[in-house]
Automatic annotation (TrEMBL), chain A:
Chain segments carrying region Disordered: 363-386
One record GO biological process: ubiquitin-dependent protein catabolic process
Keywords associated with the record: Isopeptide bond, Ubl conjugation
GO molecular-function terms, A-Z: ubiquitin protein ligase binding
Domain named Cullin family profile: residues: 442-696
Name the UniProt record assigns to this protein: Cullin-domain-containing protein
Pfam families: Cullin (PF00888), Cullin_AB (PF26557), Cullin_Nedd8 (PF10557)
Coiled-coil regions, chain positions: none
InterPro entries in alphabetical order: Cullin, Cullin-like_AB, Cullin_homology, Cullin_homology_sf, Cullin_N, Cullin_neddylation_domain, Cullin_repeat-like_dom_sf, WH-like_DNA-bd_sf
The organism's place on the tree of life at top rank: Eukaryota
Family: Belongs to the cullin family.
Automatic annotation (TrEMBL), chain B:
The protein's name in its UniProt record: BTB domain-containing protein
Domain of life where this protein originates: Eukaryota
Domain BTB: 149-214, 368-426
Keyword Repeat attached: yes
ANK repeats: 68-93
Record's compositionally biased regions (Low complexity): 324-335, 350-359
Alphabetical list of Pfam families matching this protein: Ank_2, BTB
UniProt xrefs under PANTHER family: ANKYRIN REPEAT AND BTB/POZ DOMAIN-CONTAINING PROTEIN 1, ANKYRIN REPEAT AND BTB_POZ DOMAIN-CONTAINING PROTEIN 1
Disordered: region residues: 315-364
Entry keywords, A to Z: ANK repeat, Repeat
């Protein structure tokens, strides 16, 4: 349709609209009647078109405001009249009765009454919503045009506000001036409380009422944070819950043990979560969680942990589940889980200290009363030996105890604490605490002994994995030790003995251990140890080389002595500890007069060696080393009546060999006195005593006969060849008293520590010089902290030590003090 | 911006030319040498809104170019007609960046306002004007409430609820099938056609953009083949021959857009045809008091599910009031009793007529069958059918819903709802405006306002520059007071602006009228109700356009010579037009026609320039005095 030209006119719009004055009152009557029908659920008979048209006309005629007001008035009357009275009917006395009133209603009665009330309210609300949306549909034009233009809230919003005002804020009854809203809150809270006590309630019903509260607002602008639910109900809910849980915590603590408490607490937490989902609003979940956690956990965790049946009990009795529960609960309120951590740490230290004390006690245990008869030396020696053995055993036991403890706590950590990192750090620290504690200074030594024991005997027959596990355990313990250099010292000593005495079962395992230690503690540590091994291998080669050399030399001398040689690099091996007890500073090179045959071979080797490696000096150590001596004993009457010559091979120490060979030239029946032996052999006094003791005193290896037959050796004692020597085996080993690795006596330990301290001084000085060389100038505090951190892997130096070393360095003009300036600082002198 | 090498551009152009000549690609701006288009372009140069609107309604391609390679938009932009540029853009004129024609619009823009307007219409984001219609129809596929579907197709595990009328409109096969058996309520999917294929076909039928890639995503090769085959089969069966072709994926963006535009056009065309042949053709005109006798069965041949009723205007029956409007043409057509379904012939008692005088001819009403599915485009109907009121209930016979407008208006409404066309004339425009406002059909409201503001300038050319002195023809095409009030009542800014401008350009004619004073008073009252400012909005707007009107005189210095030349022509033209005029025209005009240059208050001025300056002052002074008289403080 194209508008033609000419005589087209726009007609005035709309019949009836312009010029016709609309009769407001009669139109409103029609609309009002329709609204009443809607409210009484008769909408299906009404014509939407008609009602809409009436409202439209009114608005178009600029009477929108009147219409709005009338509708509002109408709704208000309806609500305050019809709706309110129907709700009042639901307010039975049962409902209004106070919970604590005497002679009042039973819980069940109140629950039923409450449900009735809630149902009625829900119904009223639902009806209101439906009716209002229909009204809003009819009044759509008014909403869109009038309300927007004049910035008044839409009719739907207004109706919601009216509902709030007329119903929820109305008085409960003539006597009761509480607003209905409060009653509603009260009823809901009551129902929830019943559920907490174990009753079953109608959750849906409550949820619907909660939705109603969520949809209404306290203000007229429908702001987000003014929802009735939050403003009016939620706060009450949180408060009553808090009171409830506080009480519950008290009673639970009284009645049940820690595990039970934890279980119930967890149950409550889950219960609240469910409640928020099913009965209230999800948005309350975090808030109520917080309340529960605060009351049940945060305020009580200390008591809980320290309860009799608390953490300590759980640890001791392996209640892993309960530990898990407590951990979980603690984690909820405290990400650092400080309470549990503290308890665990305390326990570890307690148990660890017990172990320590056991070890100390064991090592100081009075030795069992010595067997009577031989008095004096022997029992004492034996007692001493026994006590030292006891100490060694105590050492090993200590290590094993600690390992057991570690295993136990590891299990707890994995299973109950879900491998929590923080806890692991705490536990490590506790372990380190008691292992390095000042009252127990022997950990390094003990660990080394443990390894030593295993190397010598323990791993016999074990599979590879078991061996590996064992080594791992040792390394684990090693990690805790602070003074690693002390450990190094001990280990070197023990290793040296093992190697030289050939006591280790498997070199492979030794090497394995070294490599593990290398990984753990770094190269520096293991360099010397590896060098020791190298020396051993080289020595083997030397031995075989020398043997060939000798064979190639000439004819076989029947009396030739076979030589197995071990060449030890002097700085690598702990020389000072190799010597037996008592000969430390003096007698560094023990002297000895060897018999000529031995001397000959000795020289032969020296020649051979100097050809191989020129410029090296060899020093013989007769205090180490062994010899196999073939001994022929004169005939003795055998059981069966024949005479038989006895031949034995005696495995003795070098000194013992020298001593025995003295008797070779001795005619039968003759003796040599102690002094003579001393003079001829030049063996140091204490060694001589010990060797003679083992040759003449020790019951099973009396190759010599001593007169008088006493334990002690006096210079005037006489020694005879024991012709009547009997032994079951052909090969007999004559051990030397106390030559094995053992626990040091206190004295020894102090000496070791002193040596350690000395070397520490050197290390500290080296570190200081290194630092200063790099930094040129450095303040005192910085220097100290740097030094400590550099030496962290080895040991923890004391500040006084560092200070002293700095002074020494200044004396030796490595450093100088910087003048001026407040803080003392130093400069490096090239 | 990418830089292309010369040979790359040449290759691209060659490809495009080949595509165009082979018919694949349509030119964005095809050459158009028709008469209509020439008129159109000329009107664009002059800024003649009315002619342009008429041409657009006549169906001219708004994006063609003339023999000088100008598109209408370029012309309007070049000549600085802001309102015309807006009109063109709203009707789908293209101003796409990075195209030859698009860029020309932009850099030719006469002033910044036009330029910004063009830039704000980013084509890349703009949609096809038919998109709202298409979107609504597509939504019918998945909208569960209110229930408007009347046939279901069961396919293995999926059920489709669809509408018979759409099926009939878009698929000839269904049209025939449903014509034969209009009452069927289910249809069975032919064998070995996968459900997915049917889904695709239905989406296509419901004007949705179908991407074959999305459909076959995640399917194995076999399944994909099955689906494609199924689509082919269905397409052929339902006689939607372009189905398969159209859903094939196309990589070229332009081609894709063109395809979619084509398909939407085609769809609308089909729907339009169906609408005219079925809805319009089956309208019933009955005596108003016999309306209740009209009963349509639910199983009717056009699948209507509701009847809309519009009563003839009362004015046509009441005694004459003011205007000599032509008689009601609608009711002069012989009443057709073309009802379908059983007809209850018992008449109901006489209806109460609104008019005080009883006429010999009974008042008539027209009843149109309609489909709720399409009526949902109006929010009013959407609310109505989603509610639980009477109209939403299921009844054995179709309900008759009365609309508060004349049949002509109702037709315009229905046409718009079904086909997105809004080609009604000025005579019903205001009624349509109000109806659309009441029924909350926003787009229709805007179009009605557009028609009023473009066509409402009367039969003479409404170009401002040619009519600066506010000379008017004898006959007023519009009652401007009505228009302004309508703009207020329906909250359409455009009409308020139009009204203010109209008045400003003819202010001398209106300023002294009592109705004008009344209008100003009303405007002041409105503002008070809104509590915004202290000014009278209408007066402010008039002042603004007044300055606009006279500014044109002051700005172009070269205008003086032109004015000297054209004064004579002007005078002649006016003299011609004045011939048939009545006492409306003040004496001044006659004097001017006689060649003397006079100001509004009758004084003789030196030349047009001076005349205008003085006239401007006079008019401003009159406004101030009026405000004083009305006790308004502005």
């Amino acid at each position: 349709m194209i508008a033609g030209r000419g005589r087209q006119r726009i007609r005035p719009p709309r019949r009836g609209l312009h010029g016709d004055e609309i009769d407001f009152e009669s139109t409103w009557d029609i609309i009002q009647a329709a609204f009443r029908e809607i409210h009484t659920k008769n909408a299906s008979r009404l014509s939407y078109e008609e009602l809409y048209r009436h409202a439209y006309r009114i608005v178009l005629k600029k009477k929108g405001e009147d219409l709005y007001k009338k509708v509002k008035e109408f709704e208000k009357q309806w609500l305050s009249g019809e709706v309110r009275s129907s709700i009042q009917l639901l307010l039975s006395p049962n409902l209004l009765a106070d919970a604590q009133s005497v002679g009042g209603t039973t819980a069940n009665e109140r629950r039923v009454a409450g449900e009735k009330f809630l149902k009625g309210l829900k119904q009223a609300w639902g009806d209101h919503q439906v009716c209002m949306s229909m009204l809003a549909d009819v009044l759509m034009y008014m909403d869109r045009v009038y309300c927007q233009d004049h910035r008044v809230p839409s009719i739907y919003t207004t109706a919601m506000v009216l509902f709030r005002d007329e119903i929820l804020h109305s008085r409960t009854s003539a006597k009761d001036s509480r607003p209905l809203l409060d009653l509603l809150s009260h009823v809901i809270l009551e129902q929830i409380q019943m559920e907490r006590d174990g009753d079953v309630i109608d959750k849906h019903l409550i949820k619907s009422c909660v939705h109603m509260l969520d949809g209404l607002h306290a203000d007229d602008l429908e702001s987000e944070n003014q929802r009735l639910y939050n403003v009016s109900f939620e706060q009450d809910y949180l408060n009553t819950s808090r009171v409830f849980y506080r009480g519950e915590a008290e009673s639970m603590l009284r009645e049940s043990d820690a595990g039970e408490y934890c279980r119930r607490a967890r149950k409550r937490i889950h219960e609240e979560e469910d409640r928020c989902r099913a009965t209230l609003l999800e948005s309350t979940t975090p808030k109520i969680q917080k309340v529960v956690e605060e009351e049940l956990i945060q305020n009580r965790i200390k008591e809980l942990v320290e309860m009799e049946s608390g953490v300590r009990f759980m640890i001791d009795n392996d209640r892993l589940d309960e530990l898990n529960l407590i951990y979980d609960l603690n984690a909820r309120v405290d990400t650092k889980k400080s309470e549990v951590t503290r308890a665990i740490q305390k326990r570890i230290v307690e148990l660890g200290t017990e172990v320590n004390n056991d070890a100390i006690a064991a090592s100081q245990a009075a030795p069992p009363p010595a067997p009577a008869a031989d008095g004096g030396d022997k029992p004492k020696g034996q007692a001493q030996e026994k006590s030292l053995n006891l100490q060694t055993a105590a050492a090993i036991k200590w290590v094993e105890d600690v390992l057991v403890l570690k295993d136990k706590f590891d299990k707890v950590w994995r299973d109950s604490f879900q491998s929590d990192n923080l806890l692991q750090t705490a536990m490590t620290r506790s372990f380190a605490d008691f292992i390095n504690s000042a009252t127990f200074p022997r950990s390094s030594e003990y660990i080394s002994l443990f390894i030593d024991e295993n190397m010598k005997k323990g791993i016999k027959g074990k599979t590879e994995t078991e061996i590996d596990i064992m080594l791992e355990k040792a390394i684990i313990l090693l990690r805790y030790v602070q003074d690693k250099d002390l450990f190094e010292r001990y280990y070197k000593k023990h290793l040296c003995r093992r190697l030289l005495m050939n006591k280790s079962i498997s070199n492979e395992v030794e090497k394995q251990m070294i490599s593990k230690m290398k990984m753990e503690l770094g190269n520096n540590f293991t360099m010397k140890l590896e060098a020791m091994f190298k020396d051993m291998t080289v020595s083997e080669e030397l031995t075989s080389g020398f043997k060939k050399h000798v064979e190639g030399l000439g004819d076989r001398d029947p009396h030739r002595i076979e030589l197995a040689i071990n060449v030890l690099t002097s700085m690598t091996w702990p020389m000072d500890t190799i010597g037996g007890p008592g000969d430390n500073d003096e007698d560094r090179r023990p002297k000895c007069n060897f018999p000529p045959a031995v001397e000959k071979i000795k020289r032969g080797f020296e020649k051979y060696y100097s050809e191989k490696h020129s410029g090296r000096q060899l020093t013989w150590l007769p205090n180490m080393g062994t010899a196999d001596v073939k001994a022929v004993f004169p005939r003795v009457l055998q059981k069966d009546g024949s005479f038989k010559e006895r031949r034995h091979e005696l495995n003795v120490s070098t000194y013992a060999m020298v001593i025995l060979l003295l008797f070779n030239e001795l005619p039968a029946g003759q003796h040599i006195t102690f002094e003579e032996i001393q003079a001829q052999t030049n063996i140091p006094h204490s060694d001589l005593v010990r060797n003679l003791q083992s040759l003449a005193v020790a019951p099973k290896t009396r190759i010599l006969v001593k007169e008088p037959m006493s334990k002690e050796i006096r210079p005037t004692d006489m020694f005879f060849f024991n012709e009547g020597f009997r032994a079951g085996f052909i090969r007999i080993k004559v051990g030397v008293v106390s030559s094995g690795n053992k626990v040091e006596s206190d004295r020894e330990r102090r000496e070791t520590e002193k040596k350690n301290d000395d070397s520490r001084s050197h290390v500290v000085e080296a570190a200081i010089v290194r630092i200063m060389k790099q930094r040129k100038e450095l303040g005192h505090q910085h220097l100290v902290s740097e030094t400590i951190s550099q030496l962290n892997g080895k040991f923890k130096p004391e500040v006084s030590l560092i200070k002293k070393r700095i002074e020494k360095l200044i004396e030796r003009e490595y450093l100088e003090r910087v003048e001026g300036g407040e803080i003392s600082s130093y400069r490096y002198l090239a | 911006m990418t830089t292309l090498k010369k040979h790359e551009i040449e290759v691209a152009l060659a490809t495009e030319a080949r595509a165009v000549s082979s018919g694949q690609l349509k030119e964005d701006n095809p050459l158009d040498t028709s008469e209509n288009f020439r008129t159109f372009c000329e009107a664009c140069r002059r800024g003649d809104l009315k002619v342009c609107q008429e041409m657009i309604q006549a169906g001219v391609n708004i994006n063609s170019r003339d023999s000088h390679d100008y598109t209408p938009l370029i012309l309007a932009s070049l000549c600085g007609h802001l309102e015309l540029v807006q009109l063109l853009l709203e009707n789908g004129a293209l101003c796409e960046r990075d195209t030859f024609q698009g860029e020309r619009c932009l850099y030719n823009a006469l002033n910044d306002r036009i330029r910004n307007l063009l830039l704000s219409y980013d084509y890349a984001k703009s949609t096809n004007p038919l998109q709202p219609l298409a979107a609504h129809i597509t939504s019918l596929l998945t909208r569960p409430t209110p229930k408007t579907s009347d046939i279901t197709i069961q396919a293995y595990d999926q059920t489709f609820h669809i509408h018979k009328f759409l099926l009939a409109a878009r698929s000839p096969y269904f049209a025939k099938k449903l014509a034969a058996a209009p009452a069927i309520s289910t249809w069975k999917l032919p064998q070995n056609v996968p459900a997915d294929s049917l889904g695709v076909a239905l989406q296509y039928l419901y004007l949705s953009e179908v991407s074959i890639r999305k459909v076959t995503l995640g399917l194995s090769n076999e399944e994909e083949m099955a689906v494609l085959n199924g689509i082919d089969k269905i397409g052929r069966q339902l006689e939607m021959d372009r189905l398969f072709e159209d859903i094939t994926e196309v990589s070229d963006r332009r081609l894709l857009r063109q395809k979619r535009t084509d398909e939407l056009d085609r769809g609308r065309h089909q729907l339009e045809n169906w609408f005219r042949d079925n809805v319009m053709k089956n309208k019933v005109i009955v005596d108003t008091h016999k309306v209740d006798n009209v009963q349509w069965d639910r199983n009717n041949s056009i699948f209507a599910d509701v009847l809309l009723r519009a009563d003839d205007d009362e004015d046509d029956y009441a005694s004459d009031e003011a205007d000599t409007s032509p008689g009601p043409s609608e009711s002069s057509t012989p009443p057709l009793r073309a009802t379908l379904g059983p007809l209850n012939g018992i008449p109901v008692g006489p209806r109460q007529s609104r008019s005080p005088l009883r006429q010999r001819q009974p008042r008539k009403s027209t009843i149109y069958p309609a489909h709720r599915a399409m009526l949902l485009r109006s929010e009013y109907f959407l609310t109505m059918f989603s509610s639980t009121f009477r109209e939403a209930q299921d009844t054995p016979y179709l309900q008759v819903i009365k609309l508060d407008c004349s049949p002509k208006v109702l037709e315009a409404i229905l046409t718009f709802l079904y086909t997105e066309r809004s080609d009604f004339g000025l005579d019903v425009a205001i009624d349509v405006l109000f109806a659309a406002d009441q029924l909350f059909i926003e787009k229709l409201k805007q179009r009605a306002a557009l028609i009023i503001s473009t066509l409402g300038n009367g039969s003479t050319s409404a170009v401002e520059s040619e009519n600066p002195r506010g000379e008017i023809d004898a006959e007023e095409a519009v009652d401007i007071y009505e228009i302004v009030r309508a703009g207020w009542d329906t909250r359409v800014q455009r009409l308020e602006e139009f009204g203010a401008r109209y008045l400003a350009y003819r202010l001398e004619r209106y300023i002294d009228e009592p109705e004008f004073a009344e209008l100003v008073r009303e405007s002041a009252r409105r503002v008070k109700a809104r509590q915004e400012t202290d000014t009278v909005e209408l007066v402010d707007d008039i002042r603004y356009y007044l300055s606009d009107r006279f500014r044109l005189r002051f700005e172009d210095t070269g205008f003086d010579e032109m004015m000297d030349e054209t004064t004579q022509i002007d005078g002649d033209a006016l003299a011609d037009a004045d011939k048939g005029v009545d006492a409306y025209v003040p004496d001044v005009e006659a004097q001017v026609a006689a060649g003397a240059i006079r100001t509004l208050d009758g004084e003789i001025a030196g030349d047009e320039f001076a005349q205008d300056a003085i006239n401007y002052q006079i008019l401003l002074g009159k406004i101030d005095r009026l405000l004083e008289n009305l006790d308004l403080d502005a």
